[in-house]
Specification:
678 residues, alpha+beta, Beta-Lactamase, six-stranded antiparallel β-sheet, five-stranded antiparallel β-sheet
């Protein structure tokens, strides 16, 4: 006997031993993990028999056959957890578990049933759905038992639909089966988003450009009024129904030659429980006469397709939320005490692009006193797309969003004119999405554009969540910047106090710090190291506060200064790295320095930078005064430092100093505010 063949007199055991039910089990059992699957034969007096031989089950409760009339009447029976199951119940599986049974008939004869038990309370919500789907499958199997071709088709459609979880693959599978099985010229699947709106998601033989359309002008609720829930077969849509009118119009506009006036529009709704998941729609010359078997197959596609599409959409939403949460986590991680808004804003823009899979992103700061938006980040935009001037409140999409606190999803093909005033805004040719960045008050606006597919309401929700976290990150960065400013000002006061212990060059410590900052910026050092160098430069001579210069030799004096400087830094609670830099600031490149005789790269980079900066500030006072040196003074300074560099200074740091002197840039304290821009 072929694996798809059955004897003339069918026994349910024959079906169970057939690969079809095993495939059914493998396709559906993941929905109810931990549940036990079992069967009974037509006599109900043996079993239940486990669907898999290694499962052990308690016997049927006495009187379980009393459920048979109910099974015959509606095809299945469901006993939820805690429900009064009558005098018997189905299977002895304890309280707090759900169970159910789907029956199977052949030639109007009950031949057995397939059931589930030990369904935990948290999973019980899926039990009715699984039971009904299993019942539909058994009905199809029983109707096709003696027709091998139909049996093969039924099984193929089922197994290759219910087990697919990738949404795109699933859409193509359902479309292909529907179009080929019923000789349709083409078809389109519309799915429902979380707002109840229908949108094009899959297409077969129709123009692929249909998928770039925005939401259909028909909602889930409008459709269910036309086709009540529970309709699980093909539906003919009347000419005046909006979904048909929309499909005919869009097909014509996209160059598809629709059939003549007697066109029939058919729809297959996909219901999951009583919720519409999506709709298959197609135009045909005439409503094809479908056999009972074909109608059963349509019903199967409607139920199994709805289950699979619902699962795929759920997984897709979970994945989007996971990505959103992971991105939010990254935003939190970026908000370290050392990071500045100047560094943070580009990272936020890049994360927004990655999260929503867009090529363009702009961030604008809201200048509240002047009622305007100022561009601070423009990623992926061409020169003609970037707003060069501040944008007044209410002008352009960002200006409207900032004024009304509302997100806005815009498409250039919108029939209604946009609500904002035009003029000077950032220009996009494609659909774009803007969301206000606010925490009690509007802080700015983030805009994304140039997405391969149109934005969805789900994208809007993700960007809103992301913008909330981004604002918090920006405010935290600004707070840390304020704290660092207070710290630096306090350390400057300490530096002035230190200089009173060793009257020499007034303001030399602050000048050393400034040149060290310039060198650090030119070397593109991490922000944390930049801050450590700033603090260390202001405290590198703090050992003078406790050292008695008259009673100590030079060697011991340097050792004592290093130790006292380290203790002083530690007493202020500054990071350990600051203490290390201060302690080794008088080391020499050739190893002849103090206090430990380190040489080369053994010396902390911050110490090497401050040493060069201090030499520059000292020589500058001699020949150039404060500020930037003249050309002549610069040449003198660099000749001396370069000559000493072979012994005392890191040659690479000396080279960077040369670049800084030759190419003056803004002081580190200038133009670093980032948000708001200076």
């Amino acid at each position: 006997m072929n694996k798809y063949e059955f004897p003339h007199h069918i026994h349910f055991k024959d079906i169970v031993q057939n690969p079809y039910l095993l495939d059914l089990y493998h396709g559906m059992s993941p929905l109810l993990p931990g549940a036990r699957w079992w069967m009974v034969d037509e006599a109900w007096n043996q079993g239940p028999f486990p669907l898999r031989g290694n499962d052990t089950l308690c016997p049927l409760r006495p009187g379980a056959e009393s459920f048979l009339p109910l099974v015959k009447e509606q095809g299945y029976v469901i006993v939820p957890p805690g429900a009064d199951s009558g005098p018997a119940g189905l299977v002895e599986c304890g309280e707090g578990y759900g169970q159910g049974l789907a029956g199977c008939w052949h030639r109007n004869r009950f031949i057995g049933g397939l059931g589930m038990c030990h369904v935990s309370a948290p999973q019980s919500g899926l039990l009715p759905h699984v039971i009904r789907v299993v019942h539909g499958y058994l009905s199809l199997i029983s109707g096709a038992l003696e027709d091998h071709d139909d049996l093969e088709l039924v099984h193929t459609v089922w197994s290759e639909t219910i087990t697919v979880v990738n949404l795109d693959d699933l859409l193509q599978r359902v479309l292909r089966e529907l179009c080929s099985a019923f000789s349709l010229t083409g078809g389109l699947i519309l799915l429902c988003n979380q707002d109840g709106e229908l949108y094009p998601a899959g297409v077969c033989q129709y123009p692929s450009s249909l998928l770039k359309l925005r939401n259909v002008e028909v909602t889930r609720y409008q459709f269910t009024e036309q086709v009540p829930p529970g309709t699980e077969w093909i539906v003919e849509l009347a000419k005046e129904e909006p979904l048909r009118q929309w499909l005919e119009k869009e097909l014509r506009e996209h160059g598809f030659q629709t059939p003549p006036d007697y066109t029939v529009c058919v729809a297959v709704p996909f219901y999951r429980e009583r919720d519409l998941v999506g709709v298959f729609v197609s135009l045909v010359d005439r409503l094809l006469p479908f056999s009972d078997t074909k109608m059963d197959l349509i019903r199967l596609l409607a139920t199994s397709g709805a289950a699979a599409l619902g699962n795929a959409l759920t997984l897709q939403r979970i994945e989007k939320n996971r990505k959103a949460l992971s991105t939010i986590h990254v935003v939190h991680r970026m908000t370290s005490p050392a990071i500045t808004t100047k560094e943070l804003l580009p990272r936020i823009g890049q994360l927004a692009r990655q999260l929503l899979k867009v090529r363009k992103c702009s961030i604008m700061y809201y200048d509240q006193p002047n009622q305007r938006l100022i561009p601070v980040i423009c990623l992926g935009l061409e020169e003609n797309e970037v707003g060069q001037k501040p944008l007044p409140l209410g002008v352009g999409l960002p200006g409207w969003v900032a004024e009304h606190y509302n997100p806005y999803l815009y498409h250039p093909k919108e029939k209604t004119p946009p609500p904002w005033r035009s003029g000077g805004e950032i220009y996009y040719e494609d659909s774009y999405l803007a969301v206000a960045m606010f925490d009690q008050e509007v802080e700015g606006v983030i805009t994304v554009a140039d997405k391969e597919m149109d934005f969805t309401p789900g994208d809007r929700e993700i960007l809103m969540t992301f913008s909330e976290q981004a604002v918090l990150a920006i405010k935290n960065a600004r707070l840390h910047e304020g704290e660092r400013t207070i710290t630096v000002n306090a350390l400057k006061s300490i530096a002035n106090l230190i200089e009173t212990q060793d009257p020499g060059i007034p303001g030399i410590t602050v000048q050393t710090c400034l040149w060290a900052q310039r060198i650090a910026r030119a070397m593109n050092l991490p922000e944390s190291l930049y801050q450590h160098i700033t603090y260390a430069a202001l405290l590198h001579d703090s050992g003078l506060l406790g050292a008695d210069q008259k009673e100590l030799s030079f060697h011991k004096m340097q050792q004592k200064k290093a130790e006292l400087s380290l203790r002083f830094v530690q007493s202020l609670g500054l990071p350990k790295e600051v203490g290390d830099i201060v302690y080794h600031v008088n080391e020499a490149w050739n190893g002849e320095g103090f206090p430990d005789g380190l040489h080369g790269n053994q010396i902390p980079l911050g110490s090497r930078i401050i040493a060069v900066a201090n030499a520059c500030a000292t020589l500058l006072h001699r020949w150039g005064g404060e500020g930037r040196p003249s050309r002549e003074a610069s040449e003198k300074i660099m000749r001396i430092i370069s000559r000493l560099g072979k012994r005392s200074y890191d040659p690479d740091v000396v080279n960077v100093l040369q670049q800084v002197i030759d190419n003056p840039m803004a002081d580190p304290s200038e133009g670093m505010s980032g948000w708001p821009p200076s």
